Amino acid sequence: LSDVSGSISIETYVGEDARFSWWSLNPSTSYFVGFTFERGSSTLCQWRTGVTVNCPGNVTSTFMGKLFLYGSPASNITFEIKNVKVANEGPYKVTFRENIDPTTAIERSGVLTVLDPPEITPIQNTTVRAGETITLTCAVAGNPTPSVSWSKTGSGHSTGGNVFTKAGATKTDTGQYVCTAVNTITGNTQTRTESTYVMVKLLYEVKCKCSMMSNVLITNQKKSTEDATLAWLLLLLVQQSSLFSLSPT
């Protein structure tokens, strides 16, 4: 077993290439006559002396691989994973066969950790009516899994979790809300933020205080702030403002 280099742990970022390399410690007397490279129960690549290398460029839908052999006979083998994704993270295993004893298998392990800073999907602005529930969702990707929190600008406090909800919205809930995602990669804190704006519209009713129709509701349709204001201005124009009242519901 001492004739082959040991196990390997690799850390790399999403989109980069990762290389697992093993070599013979005594290339003059010990070199590789075959090997199998695996991830879990899936064989990614196989090779043996005198046979064409069998390492497809696209082994699975999420795996891109390439093989390098060095020396003659081969005493250094490198398996490269191209354009790594988080899905490529995990344990790998290589099984060697040497010319010293071709019938004896020698196993070595490799562990790949794929690092990915937080990424937040843009969040659309939201409009709700007073009394309704505000619901904001922050879709976040990253590895290690980021911690997520919501805060309202100027409020001085935050709420943990990807989803922020506030029942019974009022005018004071109008404002900018910020989603913050944080993870730590090799000791460095990575932070990303995404903002969205929430508008809470008040509802109004226009009532008539007529002598013969005391406190009769002119319209029972709830209007937005802008619609109600326009209706009120029209009433002023016909000089009947003393007969009507505009009140929030």
From TrEMBL:
The organism's place on the tree of life at top rank: Eukaryota
Name of the protein: Ig-like domain-containing protein
Keywords: Disulfide bond, Signal
Extent of the signal sequence: none
Keyword Coiled coil appears in the UniProt entry: no
Top-level taxonomy: Eukaryota, Metazoa, Cnidaria, Anthozoa, Hexacorallia
Annotated source species: Nematostella vectensis
Record-annotated Ig-like domain positions: 118-195
Pfam families linked to this entry: Ig_3
Ranges in a coiled coil: none
InterPro entries in the cross-refs: Cell_Adh-Cytoskel_Orgn, Ig-like_dom, Ig-like_dom_sf, Ig-like_fold, Ig_sub, Ig_sub2
